[in-house]
Amino acid sequence: MSRYSNMPPAGRAVALRYDGGSSAPIVVASGMGYLAEKIVEVAADNGVPVYEDNSLATMLSQLQLGEQIPDSLYQAIVQIYVYFLNFDPNDPDKARREREEAKAALEAAQAEAEAEAAAPEAAPEPAAAAPKIPQ
What we know:
It is elongated and about 90 Å long. Strands 1-2 form a two-stranded antiparallel sheet. It is 41% helix and 10% strand. The relative contact order is 0.12. By secondary structure, it is mostly helical. It has a domain at 12-85: secretion proteins EscU (name from scop, 3-Layer(aba) Sandwich), CATH 3.40.1690.10.
C-alpha cells in the first residue's frame, strides 16, 4: 500500500515532459496498477503536481514512451497547464477543491435554470387601459 494514503489508488498514470519551444509534450512514463501508483509517488516526492483525469490517462497511455502528444489532445493538455498554473505546493489539494467547487456551482446553476424553465410562468398582469382623450 502507498504511504500516500490521502491519494486515491492510481489505476493508470502517465507522466509528461515539456521542454518548451515548438515541440509538443512527450510521454516519459506510463503504467497501470502498481506502476501507476509508483509514478504518482515519484511525482509527489519531487513536488510535481498530479492531475487526475482517467479518460485522458487512458488516451495518453496508448502513446509510446518518447512519443509527442498528438494535436487532438492539445486542448486537454492546456487544461493541465492551467491546473499547474494554479497549483500551490503548500496546499496541493487547492486546485482540485476549486475545480470541484466550480463544478458544483455549475451543476447548481444548471439545476436552478432547469427548475425555472419547468416552473409555470406567472401570467402577466393586464395593463390598465389608458383613458381615451376626445379630440
